[in-house]
Amino acid sequence: MPERGWTYRGVLALLLALAAALPFAAQALDSPASIGIATQMACFAIAAASLNLILGHGGLVSFGHAAYFGLGGYAVGILWEHFRLGEPIFGLIPGSNELLVTLPTAMLVSGLAAAAIGALSLRTSGVQFIMITLAFAQMVFFLFVGLKQYGGDDGLSVRRHNLVPGLDLRDPAQLYWLCLGILAVWLFLLHRIIGSRFGRVLEGVRQNERRMAALGVSTYPYKLVAFVISGVGCGIAGALMANYLRYVSPEMMSWQRSGDIMVMVILGGMGTMLGPVLGAVALVGLEYTLGGLTEHWPFFLGPILLLVVLFLRGGLMGLFGVRRGSG
Amino acid sequence: MAEPLLRAEGLVKRFGGLTATDDLSLDVRTGELHALIGPNGAGKTTLIGQLTGEIRPDAGRILLLGQDVTPLSAARRARMGLARSFQIVQLLDDDTALANVALAVQAHQGHSFRFWRRAATDASLTTRASALLEEVGFDLARSGRRAGDLSHGERKVLELAMALASEPRLLLLDEPMAGLGPSESLRMTETLRRLKGRIPMLLVEHDMDAVFALADRITVLVYGRAIATGSAEEIRADPAVRDAYLAEEHG
Ligand SMILES: Nc1ncnc2c1ncn2[C@@H]1O[C@H](COP(=O)(O)OP(=O)(O)O)[C@@H](O)[C@H]1O
Ligand SMILES: [Mg+2]
Asked: A44 to each of A38, A133, B16, B112, how far by Cα in Å?
């Protein structure tokens, strides 16, 4: 499939239309729960696509992206909590239950955290970078475990969905459409970024940093900006997830979550637009199907992942003949 | 005499017990093609590494256009006009030949914090990239191939095009003909001859025919030391050079 051809665009439009029609199919098949599953898939797809920007295109193996996912969720949770209590945060910032406030806040908070953590982590590379991003994520995790006023270990309930003008997020279908719409917009933005001059530098970082230096490019600021964009994306995903679950907890930022997001990218196909989406659909889907069959599902998930990684170069997208650089 | 373009003064680089660069001084003058020859392991690549900023010398300093660049990063020096090729070609193997050169052109045009416009169809990048490929004799019909799938000779030429993209004030070439077939070598020699005079070069090369054909001056490196510098005739006639190097190469 040529990346810019009309066939390719047609396939994308068709996929989006099919995804948008899912709630009707769920109703027809009398399976309302599948709307919720699809919503989770969309949320994780946003997170995985964001990680793919730095992992698939920049070659930066961050093992701590659940931190930004969790921070996005907590932005929604904490703003709700203060809204509910009618007490401003630090006596200054009023709480909110408006998505048009909570979502930008989630993006800001996760972006700032990514800027701080990225600024330090990106001084290192290779295994050291993996370990330091993991270590920072663990620090954020334990910070929230310790924040008793926000529930500590037990997390925080968000009793009511955020309000959005013109939408009613209590309706699972509408919440799903919101997540799907944001996913589509985010994928398009990432697609533009990856094809831009900035994206080219990021590709250069992945493929040959030595060459980039010889061309006179100091890569650090580019890596940092990419890291922040990908953190912001995970924040969006977390904020939407918090609206779906109506609950946030430190579990959202655990290292297992970071691993899940990374597995989605690798499973689906690094460096492709739809790979992370496919990876999210596959992993969430597998968890539900295997989870329905046996409580030992993680035991079976491992070998499945191993088979995909061993036999499908380029992840699941490889099955469709789509490889890095071809779409 | 005018200030040399590049001057290395008393460079020393040790790897453990091995002194790869041993109190080495050398300059490249405006307009000249200066060849650096010496047996394998003499420290030529290590010297290039220090000049470009990838390797930090243990002692000595490097002046580029009269400015001390010793503490500057490789990227900073590149932005000052120092371009290079690598002995082991360094490309973006997943990208096409054209995209590789276009990225080099892009780097020369300034910062890359541009997030929206598609680089692959940006004529200000691709037109110039095509012209550069043509200039070095790269077969344009193959410019859409992945760099990783190109022949060794094409990769060498491609790297030269990338180095030229920055309109360098000085070009450091680390064995541009290594591994090339005879006809490819000749073509590369011709290309360098065309660039000569326009772009000053420091050329590391084992191909003696090419060196003697191209060089204005030659420096001979043995065990990290410059044992002689001079014109082709002077170097050919130098007994120390004959002993240390030429005899061995041709013998
Ligand atoms: N990173 C390194 N660590 C240890 N020894 C090195 C390193 N790089 C080069 N050397 C040694 O320094 C000497 C000079 O190497 P090099 O500059 O590559 O020589 P040339 O390019 O002239 O063939 C060789 O003996 C080589 O083994
Ligand atoms: Mg060498």
From this structure: 10, 19, 50, 30
Whether B157 and B136 have beta carbons less than 8 Å apart is answered as yes
Contact between chains at B119 and A214 (C-beta distance less than 8 A): no
Ligand nearest to the CA of B13: 1
Contact B112 A200 (CB under 8 A): yes
Q: Which tokens in the block code for residue B230?
A: 């001079």
**What is the reported pLDDT for A3?**
57
Q: What is the pTM of this model?
A: 0.95
CB-CB neighbours of B183 under 10 Å: 9
Alpha helices by DSSP H, chain B: 44-52, 74-79, 97-108, 123-135, 152-164, 182-195, 208-214, 232-237, 239-241, 247-250
Listed as ranges, residues in chain B with pLDDT below 50 are 250-251
CB-based contacts of B134, cutoff 8 Å, min separation 6: B140
Residue of A nearest to B165 (CA): A215
Q: Which of B78, B90, B93 sits opposite A216 (nearest CB)?
A: B78
pLDDT at residue A108 in the model = 98
Measured at the alpha carbon of residue A81, what is the angle toward residues A75 and A82, in degrees to the nearest 5? 95
CA–CA separation, B134 and A306 (whole Å)? 46
Interface predicted TM-score (ipTM): 0.94
A140 CA: distance to closest CA in chain B (Å):
30
Mean pLDDT of each 10-residue bin along chain A, 327 residues long: 73 96 96 95 98 98 98 98 94 95 98 98 97 98 97 96 96 98 98 98 98 98 98 98 98 96 94 96 92 81 82 84 69
Q: Which residue out of B54, B64, B82, B118 would a mutagenesis test of the A interface target, given it has the greatest number of A Cβ atoms within 10 Å?
A: B118
* Residue boundaries of the structural domains of chain B: 1-81+168-251, 93-167
Domain B1-81+168-251: give its CATH code: 3.40.50.300
Tally Cβ neighbours within 10 Å of residue A86. 8
pLDDT at B93: 97
A203 neighbourhood in chain B, CB within 8 Å: 92, 94-95
Closest ligand to C-alpha of residue B46 is 1
